[in-house]
UniProtKB/TrEMBL annotation:
Domain Ap4A phosphorylase 1/2 N-terminal, first and last residues per copy: 10-179
Record-given protein name: Uncharacterized protein
Transmembrane segments: 382-404
Biased composition (Basic and acidic residues): 504-517
Domain called ATP adenylyltransferase C-terminal: residue spans: 205-323
Skewed-composition ranges (Low complexity): 480-492
Organism: Gymnopilus dilepis
Region (Disordered) residue spans: 462-528
Superkingdom of the source species: Eukaryota
Length: 528
């Protein structure tokens, strides 16, 4: 596996090479700044996208297998562009998580509107409808950090679910370069003054539900395990808030919850989604909105669309595909409770459940929130906005718990061994061994002598004496192939013994005979 900084450093040259070879398509664009309610958005105009091949909308499901792929190739066969083997001009490098062992590929985006747009893709097929797991969060943050170390600034985004704006069902996280002050949502989050910096918060100026978490300023100095724990807990808290928001959406579509994830080196954001597309009232055109839109960066294909977006209003468009926020008021009881209560802390993990402290507000707070919403009840009695959504969330918690439980057990065992309170397991110390079977003497098998007999006295080796082929004076070494052809036991092959000597040797005891028998099998270490 390549070093992560080397991979990030090579992206500009690899991007240019893929562009020259025709393996990558770049669509030039212009950016127009647009200010609404003191928020500066970026609207990118790219007319060339009108000629980009249109792929059918993929179907997302948690039980997708790698045979359910995205679109057809020119020969009519379906294929997954994120499945190995990769296009060598789009494949930048590979990464491996040091704790879980999960492997990832870094690929250039085949259709790029923004230069140096690349993807972090799971090598093993995983559904784009599944939440981000701890190794994926760590690799995402590490890529952002590595880019900053070489003087580049990136941000990452992930589109999860049917209505998130994702274009491929194979799990992938996207990265694009950004200006020094970050995307618009990051500039807005940076202005927030937090009473409790280690709690989730919402941005009151936004017209839609958006849940954010501010990272500690020294996060890059965290050890690998500490980084994973913080990112996973932050993601879990935001996901819980997003699903809580979905619970109170009266017209939320059936199916698994959809949401967008945005990560920078300073914040993590999760935005719950209701619809994938927004239909402009003036023109009837459909705008596909993904995580970039909620980062404050919209994409249009024509000047007419650009003008229509400005007339409609970016805030209205984002609210149309997002959800109303019940946390927008600074006096929201739920928001105050979340900021004033302990954060979610995973205490222990098992294969069947995750036990946590501080998971969600108390019932009294939920009652206050209900009153704040005008007495509107949640449309579903479970944690998610639908039965499928609840099952997805529970499945993620179970997988999350299993992962950390295994890691916790491994750490506890290693600590006990180091302290002398436990002995290493036999399988940890056992050397690789191979079983070598020493074949029995053929002379014994053919009944020409007994075990313990002197094979050939000196006089029998005299000139002219018949020399048997198995004499120990010039016996050829027996190979493993030869030995495999010989019986493991000689009891069934023994016939009447024929003495090869006129003088019988002194008889040995049964113990000596057993020790001298060459029919025994030995376990010999593989290093011999």
């Amino acid at each position: 596996m390549e070093h992560i900084i080397d991979i990030v450093s090579s992206i500009p040259s690899r991007f240019g090479n893929a562009l020259k070879t025709g393996d990558l398509f770049f669509f030039p664009s212009t950016i127009e700044k647009h200010v609404e309610q003191e928020i500066q958005y970026e609207i990118r105009l790219c007319p060339a996208l009108q000629h980009k091949p249109v792929l059918p909308t993929p179907h997302f499901s948690d039980d997708l297998i790698d045979t359910e792929l995205t679109h057809e190739s020119p020969n009519g066969k379906k294929f997954d562009p994120f499945q190995p083997p990769y296009n060598k001009n789009l494949h930048v490098g590979d990464l491996r998580d040091e704790i879980s062992g999960e492997e990832f590929a870094i690929l250039l985006n085949k259709y790029s509107v923004v230069p140096l747009h690349f993807l972090l893709v799971t090598k093993e097929f995983k559904s784009q409808a599944s939440p981000l797991m701890p190794p994926e969060l760590v690799q995402t943050y590490t890529l952002l950090l590595s880019a900053r170390k070489i003087g580049k600034k990136l941000f990452a985004f992930y589109n999860c679910g049917d209505n998130s704006g994702a274009s491929q069902p194979h799990k992938h996280i996207q990265f694009i370069p950004v200006e020094d002050d970050g995307p618009p949502i990051e500039r807005l989050a940076r202005q927030a003054r937090l009473e409790f910096p280690d709690r989730p918060f919402s941005l009151e100026k936004l017209s839609y539900a958006s849940h954010s978490y501010r990272f500690p300023t020294n996060l890059e100095a965290y050890p690998r395990e500490g980084l994973e724990e913080l990112l996973a807990n932050a993601f879990l808290q935001l996901l819980d808030l997003a699903i809580s928001t979905i619970r109170h959406e009266p017209d939320y579509p059936a199916g698994t919850p959809s949401y967008n994830v945005i990560m920078t080196l300073e914040h993590l954001h999760i935005i719950p989604r209701r619809l994938e597309n927004y239909v402009l009232e003036d023109t009837g055109d459909k705008l596909n909105i993904n995580a970039l839109g909620f980062a404050g960066m919209l994409l249009v294909k024509s000047s007419e669309e650009l003008a229509a977006v400005k007339r409609e209003g970016v805030a209205k468009i984002l609210r149309g595909v997002g959800l109303a926020s019940s946390l927008s008021s600074s006096s929201s009881p739920l928001r105050m409770a979340l900021q004033g209560s302990p954060p979610i802390v995973l205490t222990h993990w098992t294969a069947s459940k995750v036990v946590a402290r501080g998971l969600g507000p108390p019932p009294s707070v939920l009652a206050s929130e209900k009153a704040l919403l005008g007495g509107k009840k949640a449309k579903t009695p479970i944690i998610a906005g639908s039965i499928c959504g609840g099952l997805v969330f529970i499945a993620w918690l179970i997988g999350f718990g299993i992962y950390f439980r295994k890691r916790y057990n491994r750490k506890q065992r290693n600590r006990a061994i180091a302290a002398g309170n436990a002995a290493p397991r036999e399988k940890d110390l056992e050397l690789a061994k191979e079983k070598i079977v020493i074949p029995p003497d053929p002379a014994i098998l053919l009944g020409q002598r007994k075990p313990g007999d002197i094979a050939f006295p000196e006089r029998e080796n005299a000139k002219g004496h018949h020399h048997l082929p198995w004499s120990h004076h010039d016996v050829a070494p027996v190979t493993s192939e030869d030995s495999s052809q010989l019986p493991a036991s000689s009891s069934s092959l023994r016939g009447p013994p024929t003495s090869l000597s006129k003088e019988s040797p002194p008889k040995k005891s049964a113990l000596e005979t057993k020790e001298s028998s060459i029919e025994d099998e030995m376990d010999v270490p593989a290093t011999l």
